[in-house]
């Protein structure tokens, strides 16, 4: 907890008990915030600021109704939506995605994704690994945590890995953490109470610095116990920890109240009732997250993840699709257009995908069920070769027939765009053994 405020019972030194407990809250899982910052910097290779924004379409989006329509298939397969042309001759996508269609030259479609284990879980989309892979002790880290380990923060007041997803009721949907890399590389989730705690409530910056002695005493005690940090480096990283509190860089990036209304309108307005779900379920189509993601990478984040709506359409696939897919179209188009206008299209890679696809045949409830044999995704930015479709499926979108693209190839491409060679780069696990980031190291050659 980062809240520092003036209230509650005071000690004899006139420091409130609540403030004591909440400053102590900077120590999480045996690590203080200065130690977290130090761990990040010790492993950082501060190169140019490349970044990734991943939009996770939890539930498994219907590839036949978005990116791989089959208008000549029987009615029970082709569904209700029609394909429309894009601004790239020969490429068609769903009629529900006119904005993306109008700027298809800035996107690439992956129509032949394979390698899904078919589980309702963000694990593969976060880590690149399959469930059946041998897992090191502590589990595989998510990509954002790997970037935190390898490259560290751009700015000490901005976490390298930020997760803008809502807390989702189906826990496996929630974005994965640092695995064996530990708490120093866990994603930062700036939602709810955390956002309010990022501001200095009822305390001036001067008074905050007056209380650094307390934090130093706590860290001194911790050093006496574990002897892991030297006095000099501890002092340095204590200053950086305080920088997280005193800097407004991240808070301003995520606060959209002062954003130009025209920009916010381009991205769309949040409507928590759009899906008819209880907001506590965490499946809303929040348009503001696209804008926050762009602002977070500009502020210094290396990876931003964000879930969007829910696509587990076992019933009413087309009714739900008519509500959600146009919103996704607006948000993704606005994000990529914004990145181009701001000159970030070569530095920021955008990936839009889910954990698997949907069945070609529509069920008796008008829905599509789980389908792991093939699915589709959308990529943009990162200096990639865009305006193309990679791979194809058979006449009913059942399986890849041309250029199957493994999910790990997508990760290899993301790492490539960040300047990381997965064929040579390793990270040590809890036993000190070097672990490669992926088993498949070849990026998608059509893109790079």
TrEMBL record:
Stored Pfam families? DUF1501 (PF07394)
Coiled coil regions, renumbered to chain? none
Q: Which domain of life is it from?
A: Bacteria
Which Gene3D superfamilies does this entry report, sorted A to Z? Answer: Alkaline Phosphatase, subunit A
Q: Which PANTHER family match?
A: BLL7424 PROTEIN, DUF1501 DOMAIN-CONTAINING PROTEIN
State what protein this is by name: DUF1501 domain-containing protein
């Amino acid at each position: 907890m980062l809240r520092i405020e003036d209230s509650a019972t005071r000690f004899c030194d006139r420091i409130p008990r609540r403030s004591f407990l909440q400053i102590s809250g900077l120590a999480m899982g045996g690590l203080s915030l200065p130690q977290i910052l130090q761990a990040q910097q010790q492993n950082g290779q501060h190169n140019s600021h490349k970044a990734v924004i991943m939009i996770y379409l939890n539930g498994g989006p219907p590839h036949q109704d978005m990116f791989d329509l089959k208008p000549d298939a029987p009615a029970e397969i082709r569904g209700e939506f029609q394909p429309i042309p894009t601004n790239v001759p020969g490429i068609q996508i769903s009629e529900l995605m006119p904005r993306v269609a109008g700027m298809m030259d800035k996107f690439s479609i992956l129509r032949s994704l394979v390698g899904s284990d078919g589980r309702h879980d963000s694990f593969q989309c976060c880590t690149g690994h399959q469930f059946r892979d041998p897992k090191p002790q502590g589990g595989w880290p998510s990509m954002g945590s790997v970037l935190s380990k390898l490259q560290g923060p751009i700015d000490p007041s901005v976490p390298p890995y930020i997760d803008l997803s809502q807390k989702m009721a189906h826990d496996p949907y929630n974005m994965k953490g640092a695995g064996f890399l530990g708490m120093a590389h866990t994603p930062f989730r700036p939602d709810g109470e955390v956002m309010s705690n990022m501001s200095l409530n009822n305390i001036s910056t001067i008074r905050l610095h007056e209380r650094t002695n307390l934090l130093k005493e706590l860290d001194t005690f911790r050093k006496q116990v574990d002897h892991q940090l030297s006095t000099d480096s501890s002092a340095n990283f204590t200053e950086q920890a305080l920088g997280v509190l005193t800097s407004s860089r991240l808070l301003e990036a995520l606060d959209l109240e002062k954003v130009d209304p025209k920009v916010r309108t381009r991205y769309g307005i949040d409507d928590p009732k759009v899906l008819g779900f209880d907001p506590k379920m965490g499946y809303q189509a929040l348009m503001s997250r696209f804008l926050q993601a762009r602002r977070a990478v500009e502020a210094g984040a290396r990876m931003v993840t964000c879930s969007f709506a829910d696509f587990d359409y076992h019933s009413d696939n087309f009714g739900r699709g008519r509500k959600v897919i146009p919103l996704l179209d607006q948000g993704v188009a606005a994000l990529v257009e914004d990145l181009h206008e701001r000159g970030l299209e070569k530095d920021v890679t955008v990936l839009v995908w889910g954990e698997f696809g949907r069945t070609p045949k529509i069920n008796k409830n008008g829905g599509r069920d789980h389908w792991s044999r093939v699915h589709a995704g959308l990529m943009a930015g990162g200096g990639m070769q865009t305006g193309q479709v990679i791979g194809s499926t058979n006449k009913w979108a059942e399986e890849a027939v041309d250029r199957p693209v493994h999910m790990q190839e997508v990760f290899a491409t993301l790492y490539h765009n960040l300047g990381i060679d997965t064929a040579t780069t390793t990270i040590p696990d809890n036993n000190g053994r070097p672990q490669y980031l992926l088993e498949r190291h070849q990026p998608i050659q059509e893109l790079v």
